[in-house]
Amino acid sequence: MSSLQAQVGAALTSIRNPRLDNDLLSAGMIRDLTVTDDGAVSFTFLLSREDPATLVREARAAVKQVAGVRPDAVKITVVDPAGTAPSTHGPPGAPQSAGLGVPAPVPPAAPRLGRVIAVSSGKGGVGKSTIAANLAIALGRQGHRVGLMDADIYGPNIPRMFGSFAKPAVVGGRLHPLEGYGVKLMSIGFLVERDAPAIWRGPIIMKVIQQFLQDVDWGELDYFLVDMPPGTGDAQLSLVQSIAVSGAVIVTTPQEMAVGDALKGARMFERVNVPVLGIVENMAPYTDPASGIRYAFFGEGGGERLARETGVPLLGSVPLQPGLAARADEGRPVLSDAPESPAALALREIAETLHRLAAARSAELPVITQ
């Protein structure tokens, strides 16, 4: 075995099949591996219908990173061990089902909603809803038509953050979203009593998210932000299966524990072919303008570390300034209540950066039709 072939084999063993809890080579998923001296690589990939289709994409990416391999000469033939006819896996950027005998269902696009952006985090308590609410307001004040859907079924916070608690009107069998600070809003918190626990299983969560997408009269939007619950569970999978998501924004705090959990959230979106547009670091160090003292309550640099590890940009850092949480609790978003504060200035800059990134990806993001 040549040195290059050994390196390619090592790259393939770095990828694990979560269903089998084993690497690709040990699981017997790689057959007929051929590596030529000039850097061409070819092999057969045995992928059953129960395996994640993203494994093929991961294998291709891992092999291309091996020094000496020609990226344009990597050929993967995907075969279903159950007997589906083989096919050659498509180029990078193809849908995760490319090359499979039976394609996975592609989530429908919703051009009337504009760019669908999931605001997510790996764990709770990092201020994800605060970031989602203020980003929506900032985008609205840039002149965009914005909707914000609260997908945190177990702990909906958007009603309190916007100071909106009315019941949405039903017109022609469709819910009309409430509006706050120029943003259209929908949350399960508008529909159930404030102290009613949501003791629901996954199928019900998926149904609620689908109804919010299909049975709410959102009108024509430029941006549709979705405030996700923490973690990588039913709500995240339900969203990406129900609609074509343009991208995700991952929120973390500087501390290492939050960064580690946020990394899992970022990897989850990558696995379902949703690009991570960037990282937002919340609760970053704050400098007291009166004394000049810099306070780093949760450490610093976590956002930058996460951005480097995921290979996506750091959209910005929002300082943990006094009064920020109290304003959110009272339905007074900082962008409206203290528009010249350090946190508000950071959030406006993050929204502008997010818009530039979305515009740069215009070929991949949904186009609004009038």
Beta fraction: 15-25%
Distance between the termini: 60 Å
The biggest beta sheet is recorded as: 8 strands, mixed
SSE run: HEEEEHEEEHEHEEEEHEHEHEEEHEHHH
The global form is globular
SS-based class: alpha/beta
User: Roughly how many Å is the radius of gyration?
Assistant: 23 Å
Low-confidence stretches: 84-104, 362-370
Give your account of this protein's structure.
Strands 11-12-8-13-7-14-15-18 form an eight-stranded mixed sheet, with helices on both faces. Strands 3-4-5-6 form a four-stranded mixed sheet, with helices on one face. The protein has a two-stranded antiparallel ribbon with strand order 1-2. With 370 residues, the chain is an alpha/beta fold. β3 (30-35) and β4 (41-46) form a beta hairpin. The chain contains eleven helices and 18 strands. It is globular and about 65 Å long. The chain has helices at residues 3-13, 54-64, 128-141, 158-162, 202-214, 234-242, 256-271, 302-310, 324-329, 334-337, 342-360; strands at residues 16-17, 22-23, 30-35, 41-46, 74-79, 87-88, 115-121, 146-150, 170-171, 174-175, 178-180, 183-187, 223-227, 247-252, 276-284, 286-287, 294-295, 314-319. 42% of the residues are buried. 32% of the residues lie in helices and 21% in strands.
